[in-house]
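Before relying on records like the one below, remember that each one covers exactly one chain. Contacts with other chains, cofactors or solvent are not represented anywhere in the record.
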Amino acid sequence: MKEHRTMTSLGAVGLWILLWQGIAMLVNLPLLLPSPWQTILAAWQQWQQPMFWHSVLMSLLRIMGGFLLAMLAGVLLAWLCTRSQLAEALLAPIRTVIRSTPVSSFIILVLLWIKIDSVPTFISFLMVLPVVWHGMQEGISTLNPQLQEMARMYDFSRMKALRYVTLPQLLPFFRSTAATGSGIAWKAGIAAEVIARPTLSIGRHLQDTKVYLLTDQLFAWTLTVILLSILLERMLNRLFKVAGKGGKA
């Protein structure tokens, strides 16, 4: 079954690549639409340059830093809001404002307040925070009180109850919010880099290739962004599978 799904996915990707190649041949103008081969060749040339890897590393550090901070802050705020109705009443409007405001507005505002190199981290944090906050608050609110009572009856320590009772119930919510949040962080962080143009960043290179009409390199950088997004998602899924097995041990 898994092999069948893999073959189906590869077939779908191949079909879209063939369609891309066909349209590129019809247009016959690489300045507007480079072919898949031209994109791969441009990407290969980029991968040979040390600056490419430095830029990728710095973008990853900035964006994933914001993502991890948002995960931590979101869990803490979710716990606080489930414990206190006053905290929920005071903080819920902030969450609504963050979720409703376009990311571009935040990027432009933040550029006035903090250093350019910190903008992608802050934007990633800000965009992921309400997702984690809402998702984990929902998870904490649905904890089974009977399981908590059972843990007390069997005299579980706090750490043992947390590991074997609470965390297994919260893990699906945490996994879902992390998967959604990582994608949001990556897209918002790259968008922030395009506008803020910090040194050694993927977004800066995307903007430069657009300005100088280097369309094949623009597509190549976009391909890199997509591949990194897929890689991060796979790594997160793998991490949660390991964590899930550890919780059942």
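The chain is about 85% helix and 0% strand.
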